[in-house]
Design a protein that fits this description.
85 residues; mainly alpha; 3 helices; 0% strand; elongated
Protein backbone atom coordinates (compact mmCIF):
# COMPACT_ATOMS: atom_id res chain seq x y z
CA UNK A 1 0.00 0.00 0.00
CA UNK A 2 2.83 2.38 0.88
CA UNK A 3 4.54 1.73 -2.47
CA UNK A 4 1.31 2.56 -4.29
CA UNK A 5 0.94 5.89 -2.48
CA UNK A 6 4.59 6.79 -3.13
CA UNK A 7 4.16 5.88 -6.80
CA UNK A 8 1.10 8.11 -7.10
CA UNK A 9 2.91 11.03 -5.42
CA UNK A 10 5.98 10.61 -7.67
CA UNK A 11 3.78 10.40 -10.78
CA UNK A 12 1.91 13.56 -9.73
CA UNK A 13 5.17 15.43 -9.15
CA UNK A 14 6.50 14.33 -12.54
CA UNK A 15 3.33 15.51 -14.30
CA UNK A 16 3.53 18.85 -12.48
CA UNK A 17 7.21 19.31 -13.42
CA UNK A 18 6.57 18.49 -17.07
CA UNK A 19 3.56 20.84 -17.19
CA UNK A 20 5.51 23.68 -15.55
CA UNK A 21 8.60 23.34 -17.76
CA UNK A 22 6.63 22.83 -20.98
CA UNK A 23 6.63 25.75 -23.46
CA UNK A 24 3.50 27.90 -23.19
CA UNK A 25 2.31 27.11 -26.73
CA UNK A 26 2.50 23.38 -26.11
CA UNK A 27 0.82 23.83 -22.73
CA UNK A 28 -2.09 25.68 -24.38
CA UNK A 29 -2.47 22.92 -26.97
CA UNK A 30 -2.40 20.23 -24.28
CA UNK A 31 -4.97 22.14 -22.21
CA UNK A 32 -7.23 22.37 -25.27
CA UNK A 33 -7.07 18.59 -25.72
CA UNK A 34 -7.66 17.98 -22.01
CA UNK A 35 -10.68 20.32 -22.02
CA UNK A 36 -12.39 17.98 -24.49
CA UNK A 37 -12.11 14.94 -22.21
CA UNK A 38 -15.02 13.83 -20.01
CA UNK A 39 -13.76 15.43 -16.80
CA UNK A 40 -15.58 17.15 -13.92
CA UNK A 41 -16.94 20.59 -14.80
CA UNK A 42 -14.40 22.45 -12.64
CA UNK A 43 -11.45 20.70 -14.32
CA UNK A 44 -12.87 21.30 -17.82
CA UNK A 45 -13.40 24.99 -17.03
CA UNK A 46 -9.81 25.34 -15.81
CA UNK A 47 -8.41 23.61 -18.91
CA UNK A 48 -10.56 25.81 -21.17
CA UNK A 49 -9.24 28.92 -19.40
CA UNK A 50 -5.66 27.68 -19.77
CA UNK A 51 -6.21 26.88 -23.46
CA UNK A 52 -7.48 30.40 -24.17
CA UNK A 53 -4.78 32.31 -22.28
CA UNK A 54 -3.07 35.10 -24.16
CA UNK A 55 0.27 34.16 -25.75
CA UNK A 56 2.59 36.58 -24.00
CA UNK A 57 6.32 36.13 -23.82
CA UNK A 58 5.99 32.48 -22.84
CA UNK A 59 6.57 32.93 -19.13
CA UNK A 60 2.86 33.52 -18.40
CA UNK A 61 3.73 36.44 -16.15
CA UNK A 62 2.77 39.28 -18.45
CA UNK A 63 -0.80 39.46 -17.24
CA UNK A 64 0.04 39.56 -13.54
CA UNK A 65 -1.06 43.19 -13.19
CA UNK A 66 2.42 44.58 -12.66
CA UNK A 67 2.81 48.29 -13.42
CA UNK A 68 3.78 49.11 -16.98
CA UNK A 69 7.39 49.92 -17.78
CA UNK A 70 8.34 53.58 -18.07
CA UNK A 71 8.55 55.09 -21.51
CA UNK A 72 12.00 56.14 -22.77
CA UNK A 73 11.02 59.84 -22.77
CA UNK A 74 9.81 59.90 -19.15
CA UNK A 75 11.97 61.72 -16.61
CA UNK A 76 13.74 59.46 -14.17
CA UNK A 77 15.56 60.61 -11.05
CA UNK A 78 19.30 60.13 -10.95
CA UNK A 79 20.73 58.87 -7.68
CA UNK A 80 24.35 59.20 -6.70
CA UNK A 81 25.53 56.76 -4.07
CA UNK A 82 28.78 57.58 -2.37
CA UNK A 83 31.10 54.65 -1.88
CA UNK A 84 32.28 54.35 1.71
CA UNK A 85 35.93 53.35 2.14
Amino acid sequence: MQNLIVGIVVFGCAVYAVWTLMPASLRRAAAGHLAGLPLPAAARAKFRRLAQSAPGCGCDGCDSGAPAAKKPGDAQPVQFIRKVR
